């Protein structure tokens, strides 16, 4: 790819290249191998439900997180957007959660990892199916549908795509229910019939309740409803506050205080022989609103060159090149973004274990991944102000492999 003129300092908030920079070059880009890939197979969200189900005797399940002790009744409370580092940083707002940190992950005091990208649709699919993104096939916020060539929003399920074809594997809840375990999901009624719920969390009984308190009480009741029970419950509003106001805001801290009380309410109602696990789908980082921290794809001629579709989100991009331009796009993106983003080709990302254990990606998923994949290391975003105006205006963001986004709690309370 030719570059008739170097980018200006205004374009990207960096010092303008000088003649002393050979060919207007940049320092060495971040090595793909330096990205902290998720702990698939031993300590990721995808390993949680299989470990719990194995402890209840569900056939075909493997106890992949060895630190966890089996229980007859297991409840997973997933709090959207509550990263490990956010709990550590807010002991006053979350005293109950903070007190559980030392016992996280079976008493080791360690977190688990979300998976890549660290985003809701991907993480919920990993939780519910027990599979990494390269297998379940929801590897990002938006990805290309190879059958149509269009971007598919996997959170909102737009445009419509047959759910069973997009994600054909059974959920752990379905397998547990078939094995005689009492399986239930307690969440907002809004989510009962969504395609994402169908492909990621279906199986057993869905019970919709509007308030957090109602969900906690009903989750405890559902745990007691069987000799062996697997119950999932969910709270989304913390994530919404983070996106809109940031994790440094009073609104977010107020939501965290409420979440802390919800966890304690559920923990105090656990029936005998129960284990409660509090986890999250991702953490979050606040990104300043300036040109240095928010690079606008829609205004950057270099980054747009040779790109047919831009997928993913600001901190975890899937880049789909015009046929034949894949290598040029990879080279350009590394030159422009490589000091702040891990930039990899599809095959490099797979070999590095970003989407699952190396060598383990379903054929149907391979072409959904970007020709180029960019994951932010620094507190920066690659926004698209015209294509994605709402997403580009968010204060709090997530998606990449930094500790603030990737590390999630596995807090435990047992009765």
Can you put this structure into words, describing what you see?
- The protein is an alpha/beta fold and 415 residues long.
- It has helices spanning 9-12, 48-55, 84-89, 95-100, 104-107, 120-129, 133-136, 163-166, 172-178, 195-201, 212-223, 237-245, 250-267, 301-304, 326-337, 346-351, 363-366, 389-392, 403-406, and strands at residues 73-79, 112-113, 142-144, 151-153, 182-187, 205-208, 229-235, 274-279, 285-286, 294-296, 307-313, 316-321, 341-345, 372-376, 381-383, 396-397, 407-408, 411-414.
- The termini are far apart.
- Residues 1-24 have low confidence and may be disordered.
- Shape type: globular
Task: Tell me the number of strands.
Answer: 18
- What class do helices, strands and sheet pairing give? alpha/beta
Average the pLDDT over all residues and give the rounded result.
Answer: 94
C-alpha Rg, in Å? 21 Å
The amount of helix comes to: 25-40%
Give me the side-by-side strand order of the main sheet: 6-5-7-1-8-18
What is the overall number of helices? 19
Stretches where pLDDT is under 50 for at least 5 consecutive residues are 1-24
The largest sheet is: 6 strands, mixed
Q: Give the amount of beta strand, in percent.
A: 15-25%
First-to-last CA distance: 62 Å
